[in-house]
């Protein structure tokens, strides 16, 4: 089974653009910008920015929900149902507190780990059985910070963290054609190898 929909998670609006919670948007923006003629455009019926493209010979959709993070499932569910995309053909790209900046991991299924965007997508798709590309942003505890998680994810990364997150995005973009083509083992091995 190949990937037919890549969803980047984030919050809409310029005030959220540079925040850790928007790492999923950053990857999808980079992907769209790297593809000739690929432009994300507002699509009201899917409550998001949408683009149709081809990678590795596979036709796929790119989506950035324009709902807030905790309502991401609305957008994902609408597009997946309309184009008859199965949950196993969906790849959700999101920020991950449990991974350090610079680390990216690919996995299928599992819990939401407290991520409200994933919770809502799971509810909309009726299953946890979809792919996730987890971009590490670190956790305030690992920085010996008392900052609340909700506050931490809604702030911009420190300069050194930003560089590491961008490196993880670049590495992820290099393995995406394998995942899109259904070669998940090869994509995972390449991505998880330091």
UniProtKB/TrEMBL annotation:
<dbReference type="GO" id="GO:0005737">
    <property type="term" value="C:cytoplasm"/>
</dbReference>
<dbReference type="GO" id="GO:0004045">
    <property type="term" value="F:peptidyl-tRNA hydrolase activity"/>
</dbReference>
<protein>
    <recommendedName>
        <fullName>Peptidyl-tRNA hydrolase</fullName>
        <ecNumber>3.1.1.29</ecNumber>
    </recommendedName>
</protein>
<dbReference type="Pfam" id="PF01195">
    <property type="entry name" value="Pept_tRNA_hydro"/>
</dbReference>
<dbReference type="GO" id="GO:0006515">
    <property type="term" value="P:protein quality control for misfolded or incompletely synthesized proteins"/>
</dbReference>
<comment type="subunit">
    <text>Monomer.</text>
</comment>
<keyword id="KW-0820">tRNA-binding</keyword>
<keyword id="KW-0963">Cytoplasm</keyword>
<keyword id="KW-0378">Hydrolase</keyword>
<keyword id="KW-0694">RNA-binding</keyword>
<dbReference type="InterPro" id="IPR036416">
    <property type="entry name" value="Pept_tRNA_hydro_sf"/>
</dbReference>
<dbReference type="InterPro" id="IPR001328">
    <property type="entry name" value="Pept_tRNA_hydro"/>
</dbReference>
<feature type="binding site">
    <location>
        <position position="70"/>
    </location>
    <ligand>
        <name>tRNA</name>
    </ligand>
</feature>
<dbReference type="GO" id="GO:0072344">
    <property type="term" value="P:rescue of stalled ribosome"/>
</dbReference>
<comment type="function">
    <text>Catalyzes the release of premature peptidyl moieties from peptidyl-tRNA molecules trapped in stalled 50S ribosomal subunits, and thus maintains levels of free tRNAs and 50S ribosomes.</text>
</comment>
<feature type="binding site">
    <location>
        <position position="68"/>
    </location>
    <ligand>
        <name>tRNA</name>
    </ligand>
</feature>
<comment type="similarity">
    <text>Belongs to the PTH family.</text>
</comment>
<feature type="binding site">
    <location>
        <position position="116"/>
    </location>
    <ligand>
        <name>tRNA</name>
    </ligand>
</feature>
<dbReference type="GO" id="GO:0000049">
    <property type="term" value="F:tRNA binding"/>
</dbReference>
<feature type="active site" description="Proton acceptor">
    <location>
        <position position="21"/>
    </location>
</feature>
<feature type="site" description="Stabilizes the basic form of H active site to accept a proton">
    <location>
        <position position="95"/>
    </location>
</feature>
<feature type="binding site">
    <location>
        <position position="16"/>
    </location>
    <ligand>
        <name>tRNA</name>
    </ligand>
</feature>
<comment type="function">
    <text>Hydrolyzes ribosome-free peptidyl-tRNAs (with 1 or more amino acids incorporated), which drop off the ribosome during protein synthesis, or as a result of ribosome stalling.</text>
</comment>
<feature type="site" description="Discriminates between blocked and unblocked aminoacyl-tRNA">
    <location>
        <position position="11"/>
    </location>
</feature>
<dbReference type="InterPro" id="IPR018171">
    <property type="entry name" value="Pept_tRNA_hydro_CS"/>
</dbReference>
